[in-house]
Design a protein that fits this description.
Number of helices: 17
Structural class: alpha/beta
Shape: elongated
Helix content: 40-55%
CATH superfamily of the largest domain: Winged helix-like DNA-binding domain superfamily/Winged helix DNA-binding domain
Order of helices and strands: HHHEEHHHHHEEHEHHEHEEHEHEHEHEEH
Number of strands: 13
Mean pLDDT: 91
Length: about 400
Amino acid sequence: MVDIPNLRHLRAFIYIADSGSISKASELVFLSQPALTQAIAKLENAVKATLFERRSDGMHLTSLGMIFNKRVSRAISILDDELTKILNIKTGNSKKSKSSNYINTVTITQLRALLAVAENKSYSAAGRSIGVSQSSLYRASKELEASLDVVLFEKTSLGISISKVGLGLLKATKLAFKEIQQGLEEISSEQSAGAGRIVIGSMPLARTCLLPETINDFSYINDDFNIKVVEGDYSDLLYHLRNGEIDVLIGALRFPPPAVDIRQETLFDSSNNIIARTDHPLTKVDDLTMDVLAEQSWVVPGEHTPARRMFNEFFSDTENYPQKLIETSSQILVREILLGSNKLAILSKHQVQRELNEGKFTILDFPSFSHSRPIGLTFRQNWHATELQKSFISLLRDKGLALSVLS
């Protein structure tokens, strides 16, 4: 978990940046001027950067301070908006200004406790995960509930769950922490060219034809840039994207988009074909029919995926729907099953381009089969990429454009 600076210090940083004065900021953040000066010194030490220039006419942001201010302002705004919702739920009051009283009492320790309990479902496991005692974590959790005067943690038969109100604060905390983390990474990048990080949620096709070359080319130029690839099914990856744990999701796009807080961008349309091993008996059949194909054994993706819908639509006009199905989302397993049997699969040729080039797979010619699906990027609507992240996304677009020529 990223080491997030003191929340009150971050709030003070914003006030000083806005007013250009420690004396004015001290009145807003309820800290004395010496305490505020010390807080900014601790914050600069924590982020390992000088954030302000001290001049006779006041405090002025440095270039690194300007970068960090944008991220911290967004982070505080995300938390402030969610705390306002909590206030409205509790009182029905729509005056946003009152939520600032909340954010001045909520601490990083309390928000870390919320994240840890949500992930581990128990106070003991949560305490171990972040290296604090169970009693300390329990106390921080209860102090958070008391300061907001709402129920956030609920006991269930499976452990501790997060209430509906708590889930909103949980998501806001993840997104706010992500903004601060990116601010820290941008500072590091400015001080050391190439430093930074991106977390990619990847669907199967991207892992074989798009990501490897992009990662290799980008890493050659930016060897200090860290890349994490997270695999999983679409719904799981989308959840982590919307909660700030993934920066970009790469794979088949969904239409209509499944959530209002995301945006999609098409890179290329991927044509799909009936794939078999090269010496499959059907390669010797001149006129394939739907009945013959329906009798075959197929390897198919999971329900509710674009590829499975494509498979179902392909057989929708025939009386015989295939009965011999093996369902898996593992591309490695699909490959090995096809190579070692007479089973078939409907796959993008981008996914199996290497096997096609090596002569291990072949495309069964079936004139009436013509299906494609859009492959692209999915982002959070309010995601603000760092400069290096933008460069990585730009390279992905270039690679996608090259693949569109092969479609």
